[in-house]
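stage 2 :: seqdesign
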């Protein structure tokens, strides 16, 4: 018999802590009748198993194929060793503090087992804080490491005997589930409705259902902050919500009852479905099929949908007669999402008819994440709940590098070992509250992960508040050009370090010649870049003002190409701008180069086309005009406009034809398609030139403009046969990805310095 006994030691590295990995291994070992032990170490999880060799192989196969859903195995090492003749399988008690849990898992949507338990377990009937080792809050409740109940915001809640026995039972799904709780010992909700305070889950659900059915708005505390909720089919309620938030036209997210409802309202591909139902539960931007209240997403062809992720959401939909509710972040325009109960009462007093709160604190503020899918790949627009603080793994050390990011849709990063830890979505730093949130989160994350910054990387733009912050730290500062950082971020994600064709299109970033860049073709690696070519400069009358009043850019383009003659053209746009009192001043300013910075930005090019075609004269929120232009594309059109590629890329010929198309009453969706198609051709042509001259076939597509699905899809299709095409999947291609690129460039400089 003894010659059949095999002993094997298996070391696993990856995200294997705080996600129920050891109990999972324990149960699996029992299933395959193996003896031995499993243990947590700083390096990961180590398992020793004894038994039949085939059983060991099956055990390992299942372990790798089907691990707990929030875990990720990066590497498996195994070696045979001499038998210890174990009599059982055990989870080794952590003896030293060094092998306690030091990883922080993102928050995990409530699992199906817990939803079932909510209906069957006497102590958790309709209990809205139910969780287990496979699900529940993680990052939002942690205060410091190691991850233990005492270091989370569950600390004030003492476990009852039943919960404790579950927490201590190895075979239980709640074994070492730090936030374990029940009706008798855990947190609870309170609904503040006028002068009334409603308690008791059933009463609360009833009142919430009543308020929503009657067109009311409820401020509801989620995992990482407060949300504002109302019936998504009620025009009046949604309109009221829009007014209350002072939010111009920015689309609201909608939470739907289930996948069937999502499919009813939107087209859902298999990959989109996978993301909708994933434990991360992001908002997925989908092609809308049926109407909800118009004010949810005016002028958009896409709809942001998500499925319930907290137990309360599930209870709510059981009670609610509705299938879809608006669930938008609880804040006023650019301010951070509210997390504090007291502040909630102040902020939402006038915005909402009722406030639903609970008595557990939110330690880390996180917004909902937003993703979309092109070519079956996930593209992240906002990386927060469910994604943060999962690291981006790099192949070189970045320890102690703090990268402060850009300014709009801000996010920063800290380096730990070879991991880049990207912060949650911070927001627009120009808002003072958001700026305070940024500074506070830097020290919070550095404390949490015990990172001591030794160097800070930031944008070249001296006026970015993130640059100001970097310069205030008395640490060595490395300035990284904005578009180089965009390209480097994508390179970091794919662990590339060789020279690439970097195509970076965005709204704006300071260039090394002092102008505003944003339609860039860079020949780059992590240490440096050469600007191969770029879009022609357009004067931006009024500077930053032009990014908002996009008609100014439209005027500048027409004036640059047609001279004063453009005012005689019979275009709806021209008729409208002729009425503008500022027009003469603007033309004068362009002539005299007064407060008209030059920009090669692709974002501004979209603005100009959207303005001239009379689609949109304003960006009431970031990239509104480009989004509207994309939304109307007639995708049956394959034609393009002419353009010239010399030292720079000139669109003069394109604008001339757009003007004549408008005069000839060519439908605007056709014009928009021809414009988009032209951009794809520009990329294809320049990429081919670069391939020939620079001798590389690796293309990086980055920058916020590639959130344009039509552009990204067509570009990838056009390039895929002759190039290796990379576009960001794990980090946003917008400015929220900049910090990772800054970190990669800084690491390259530091590591080179260290080795020389
Ligand atoms: Zn669960
Ligand atoms: Zn309990
Ligand atoms: Fe940018």
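stage 2 :: out
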């Amino acid at each position: 018999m003894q010659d059949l006994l095999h002993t094997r030691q298996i070391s696993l590295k990856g995200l294997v802590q705080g996600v129920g990995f050891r109990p999972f291994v324990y149960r699996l070992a029992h299933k395959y009748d193996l003896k031995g032990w499993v243990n947590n170490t700083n390096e990961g999880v180590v398992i020793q198993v004894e038994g039949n060799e085939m059983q060991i192989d099956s055990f390992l196969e299942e372990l790798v194929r089907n691990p707990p859903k929030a875990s990720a195995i990066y590497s498996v090492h195994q070696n045979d060793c001499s038998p210890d003749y174990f009599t059982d399988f055990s989870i080794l008690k952590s003896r030293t503090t060094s092998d306690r849990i030091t990883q922080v898992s993102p928050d995990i949507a409530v699992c199906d087992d817990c939803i079932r338990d909510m209906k069957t377990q006497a102590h958790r009937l309709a209990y809205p804080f139910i969780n287990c080792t496979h699900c529940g809050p993680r990052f939002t409740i942690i205060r410091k490491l190691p991850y233990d109940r005492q270091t989370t915001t569950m600390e004030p809640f003492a476990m009852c005997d039943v919960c404790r026995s579950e927490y201590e039972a190895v075979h239980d799904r709640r074994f070492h589930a730090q936030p374990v709780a029940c009706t008798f010992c855990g947190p609870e909700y309170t609904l503040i409705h006028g002068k009334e305070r409603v308690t008791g889950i059933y009463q609360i659900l009833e009142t919430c259902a009543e308020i929503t059915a009657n067109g009311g708005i409820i401020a509801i505390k989620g995992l990482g902050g407060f949300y504002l909720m109302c019936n998504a089919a009620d025009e009046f309620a949604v309109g009221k919500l829009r007014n209350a938030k002072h939010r111009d036209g920015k689309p609201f997210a909608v939470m739907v009852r289930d996948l069937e409802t999502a499919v009813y309202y939107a087209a859902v591909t298999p990959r989109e479905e996978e993301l909708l139902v994933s434990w991360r539960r992001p908002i997925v931007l989908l092609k809308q099929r049926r109407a909800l209240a118009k004010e949810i997403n005016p002028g958009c062809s896409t709809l942001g949908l998500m499925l319930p992720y907290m137990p309360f959401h599930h209870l709510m939909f059981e009670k609610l007669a509705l299938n879809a509710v608006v669930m938008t972040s609880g804040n006023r325009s650019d301010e951070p999402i509210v997390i504090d109960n007291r502040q909630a009462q102040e902020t939402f007093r006038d915005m909402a008819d009722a406030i639903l709160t609970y008595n557990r604190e939110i330690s880390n503020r996180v917004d909902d994440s937003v993703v979309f899918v092109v070519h079956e790949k996930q593209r992240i627009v906002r990386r927060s709940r469910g994604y943060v603080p999962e690291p981006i793994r790099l192949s070189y050390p970045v320890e102690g590098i703090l990268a402060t990011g850009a300014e709009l849709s801000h996010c920063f990063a800290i380096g730990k070992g070879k991991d880049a830890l990207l912060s949650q979505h911070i927001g627009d730093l120009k808002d003072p509250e958001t700026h305070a949130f940024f500074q506070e989160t830097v020290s919070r994350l550095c404390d949490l992960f015990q990172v001591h910054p030794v160097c800070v990387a930031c944008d070249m733009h001296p006026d970015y508040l993130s640059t100001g912050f970097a310069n205030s730290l008395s640490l060595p500062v490395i300035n990284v050009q904005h578009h180089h950082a965009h390209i480097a971020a994508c390179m970091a994600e794919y662990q590339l370090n060789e020279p690439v064709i970097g195509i970076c299109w965005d709204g704006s970033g300071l260039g090394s010649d002092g102008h505003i860049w944003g339609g860039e073709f860079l020949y780059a690696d992590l240490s440096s870049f050469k600007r191969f070519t770029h879009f022609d400069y357009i004067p931006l009358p009024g500077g930053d003002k032009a990014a908002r009043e996009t008609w100014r850019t439209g005027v500048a383009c027409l004036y640059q190409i047609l001279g004063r003659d453009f005012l005689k053209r019979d275009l709806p746009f021209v008729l409208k701008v002729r009425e503008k009192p500022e027009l003469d001043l603007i033309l004068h300013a362009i002539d005299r180069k007064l407060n008209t910075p030059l920009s090669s930005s692709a974002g501004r090019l979209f603005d100009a086309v959207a303005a001239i075609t009379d689609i949109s004269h304003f960006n009431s929120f970031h990239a509104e005009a480009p989004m509207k232009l994309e939304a109307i594309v007639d995708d049956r059109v394959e034609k393009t406009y002419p353009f010239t590629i010399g030292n720079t890329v000139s669109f003069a010929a394109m604008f001339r034809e757009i003007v004549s198309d408008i005069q000839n009453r060519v439908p605007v969706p056709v014009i928009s398609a021809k414009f988009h198609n032209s951009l794809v051709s520009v990329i294809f042509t320049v990429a081919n030139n670069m391939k020939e001259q620079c001798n590389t076939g690796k293309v990086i597509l980055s920058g916020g403009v590639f959130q344009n699905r039509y552009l990204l899809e067509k570009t990838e299709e056009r390039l895929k046969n002759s190039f290796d095409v990379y576009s960001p999947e794990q980090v946003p291609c917008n400015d929220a990805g900049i910090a990772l690129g800054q970190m990669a460039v800084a690491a390259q400089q530091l590591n080179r310095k260290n080795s020389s």
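stage 3 :: structure notes
- Residues 538-726 form a domain with the Nucleotidyltransferase; domain 5 fold (CATH 3.30.420.40).
- Residues 110-111, 113-114, 131-132, 134-135 surround zinc ion (ligand 1) (CB under 6 Å).
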